Amino acid sequence: MNKNWRILLIILVFMLLVMLIGPFLVPVPPAAGTVSPRLLADADSQFVEIDGILVHYKMMGQGQPYIILLHGFGASVFSWHAVMEPLSQLGTVIAYDRPAFGLTERPMNWSGLNPYGPEGNDALLAGLMDYFGIQKAILIGNSAGGTISMQFALLHPDHVQALILVDPAVYENSSPNWVSILGKTPEMQHLGPLFVRSIRKSGLDLIRTAWHDPTRITQETLDGYTKPLRATNWDRALWDFTMASHDTGLISDLKEFTMPVLVITGDDDRIVPTANSVKLAGVIPNSKLVIIQNAGHVPHEEQPTLFMQVADEFIKDLK
Hints:
By secondary structure, the protein is α/β, with parallel strands linked by helices.
């Protein structure tokens, strides 16, 4: 081997060592200022252990129908604060935090299903319904919570009375496979929480994008969304959630829904384009579409009165 090749080989080995070992030399201390989720709970917060996970939820109302609320990415039960009370006039309402969000426990180790993946989310919802003795419920899901609701309805159609899909993230592109493969390497598993912590700033921009009129966002809303970022292991759990996400093939099953479906979207959704919700309603058999004016990705927060008019009529027609 001549001298030039020997030098090139040394450089390549050095670069490989840097890529393999370098990330582990970057310190990743625990996120500062975090506490147990229980210390962040509200007066009406409740906790229940389902499949070994301490789940945070809120409940209002009584009797049937049972209405279960599933929030979107980066949100929590707080997302439903403007509509829980009026929905409770119709029956029993339960809103809960999915793993990696809100004040639900964020396990770092588990056996069996990954609690952060779609399958784990389905099992958790089934476990909650079993715990409360709910045989059939109306599922209201926003954004990613809408897709979880739909997946559950396909797997357990006998347990779903109806679906209300609020700006559901069905047609949004998932990350390429190579991103998931790279993210699961030991190096990225080590550094991942550091990347996730940027959501403390970018998340505020996302909230503003989610609203048609961001000037109406109150400090209470910002505080409600950012409070879970003080929960222990919020950053590591969010990274695990990101790595557990994958395509479930939902798009190929859209014609299989047999229960009543209402699709609600804001007329100015810049996260899940309004056109995508219109398209979805056109594919799901016998579904109904309502476009709420002057609303973005979270019409139940931005236009709760209009949202409730639509939801109230739909739910009452089910009886």
